Amino acid sequence: MNRFTQNVFRLLVVLNTAVLAATYGTFWQIDRSQDFRRTMHKRFPYMLEAYYKYQEAGGYYGIRERDQMEWFSRKD
């Protein structure tokens, strides 16, 4: 391989790793923090919907309902 091809390949590997790390970090925050899920509900509802569907597909039910009960009981 020539030098240009190697540099492009390295750049793609670094970018792919950065995107993977950011995705995992976001999932970890959504999974751990109900307040972060509320923020995601307000700003990016489609991402939170994907999280709920992913969890339900894995057999974890009731997260959406608990979040909604908590959010509606608060007066922000």
What does this structure look like?
With 76 residues, the protein is an all-alpha fold. The protein has one domain. 84% of the residues lie in helices and 0% in strands. The protein has 4 helices and no strands. The radius of gyration is 18 Å and the shape is elongated.
Mind sketching the topology for me?
Blueprint (H helix, E strand, L loop, with lengths): L2 H30 L1 H10 L1 H13 L5 H11 L3
Helix pairs in contact: 1-2, 2-3
- Summarize model confidence as the mean pLDDT: 94
How many distinct domains? 1
| Proportion of strand residues | under 5%
Q: Summarize the helix and strand pattern as letters.
A: HHHH
Helix content: over 70%
Major β-sheet, in short? none
Secondary structure tally: strands: 0
Could you give the distance between the termini? 59 Å
Secondary-structure content class: mainly alpha
| Count of helical regions | 4
Radius of gyration: 18 Å
Unreliable stretches covering 5 or more consecutive residues: none
- Please tell me what the overall shape is: elongated
